[in-house]
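Q&A log
Question type: sequence-to-structure
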Amino acid sequence: MAKRVISDNTMVAHEAFHKHNRQNNLNHGFVGIKIDIEKACDRPKCNFIREDLQNLDFPTVFISNIMNCITTTKFDVLINGNPIDDNLLFCQATIKEATNLSKKFQDYQNSFG
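Response status: OK
Response body:
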């Protein structure tokens, strides 16, 4: 959470765990993962776009202009209109859920490097 100390984020995560466990009366494991996407979103991998444009024989100047537009643009992930870069993910502590998360992280890594 922006403009807060790390202990505030820790308290938010603890409260989320506590509320979820209390509401669901869980008898199985539960996992929370905190990820910071700020660095990952700063530079998406766009080499494949350059390669595709080159393979389609677009002029070098055109390709350079397109790549300048893509690589110099900054974007933010917005939730309720506010930029975010920290996420808390919660799931059951099962092999199935871990496999699903692993696949999603791999997709994310492939997209953003």
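Response note: The chain has a mean pLDDT of 73.
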